[in-house]
User: Which sequence fits this backbone?
């Protein structure tokens, strides 16, 4: 996956990009998850417990922003005319050319065999996307 880099300097707190895609319900999300192999890319982000944004089929470049355990972006939900939206906002000043990243906050069943490894290289990297498995 290519890196997503800042094309200009970005100020702390600034909206960098909206995470867009098809809004699906929980049942559709479960069906789509089951149809994917373990190694296929997933572009799901929860709006709330009942609605998920699926950027797999319809989405923008926000879906290609990488994970980091020490990210420079954070996901925030806001409402436009009572419709929930997801935005990636700068957690800090970001220089032009710097790689953009956010913490995926993956939730998984706790089975270490299916835990997705993290290779972000951050000093505080847990080694996993989401909470690390317990031995």
Assistant:
């Amino acid at each position: 996956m290519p890196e997503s880099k800042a094309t200009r300097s970005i100020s702390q707190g600034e909206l960098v990009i909206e995470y867009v895609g098809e809004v699906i319900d929980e049942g559709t999300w479960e069906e789509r998850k089951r149809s994917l192999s373990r190694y296929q890319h997933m572009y799901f982000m929860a709006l709330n417990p009942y609605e998920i944004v699926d950027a797999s089929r319809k989405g923008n470049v926000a879906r290609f922003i990488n994970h980091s355990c020490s990210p420079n972006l954070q996901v925030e939900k806001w409402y436009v005319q009572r419709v929930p939206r997801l935005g990636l906002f700068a957690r800090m000043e970001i220089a032009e050319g710097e790689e953009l990243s956010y913490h995926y906050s993956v939730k998984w069943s706790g089975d270490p065999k299916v835990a997705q490894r993290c290779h972000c290289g951050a000093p505080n990297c847990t080694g996993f996307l989401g909470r690390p498995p317990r031995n």
